[in-house]
Specification:
With about 150 residues, the chain is an all-alpha fold. About 80% of the residues lie in helices and about 0% in strands. The protein has one domain. The protein starts with a helix and ends in a 7-residue tail after the last helix.
Length: about 150
């Protein structure tokens, strides 16, 4: 059952990622990206995996030490729960990145690889996006007309 739930957490998120990357700008993609609901099924899987190992999970997060996380990750349910948590968090970040990119008019051909990188290695994808976002925001501020009298 644990292996099934481990796989399910990814497959629940994959269609949303596919929309964000392959169908940007579509009305239904924008609506899905704006909703918190796509993350909910993955969080339900997380709960199903986390409840059986909750005492060890709580010990690992309330007193974070490497050894506690190693013990948690040695348990099938513990490793799968952390995986589902990562999948849910990455999807939440991906949806935010998608919405921000649309708001800042970042081209989908730039965002597609960044979103794919976020699926695979989220810290790298998010950092690159944050850098690009800062550049776009700075450029937008430079184009704004200055207030009169300034």
């Amino acid at each position: 059952m644990t292996a099934f739930l481990f796989d399910l957490s990814f497959w629940l998120a994959a269609p949303v990622w596919a929309l964000l990357i392959l169908a940007p700008g579509r009305r239904w993609t924008d609506r899905i990206a704006a909703s918190p609901l796509p993350v909910v099924p993955v969080l339900v899987v997380y709960l199903a995996l986390a409840v059986p190992v909750f005492p060890r999970l709580w010990a690992a997060v309330s007193r974070p030490e490497l050894g506690g996380f190693q013990e948690l990750m040695a348990l099938d349910d513990g490793a799968a729960a952390i995986w589902a948590q990562v999948i849910a968090w990455d999807l939440f970040l991906g949806q935010w990145m998608y919405r921000e990119a649309r708001r800042l008019q970042i081209h989908p051909l730039v965002m597609g690889p960044l979103l794919l990188l976020t699926v695979l290695l989220s810290p790298i994808g998010v950092l690159l996006f944050l850098g690009l976002r800062a550049i776009r925001i700075r450029a937008a501020r430079g184009r704004e007309p200055s207030p009169s009298g300034a």
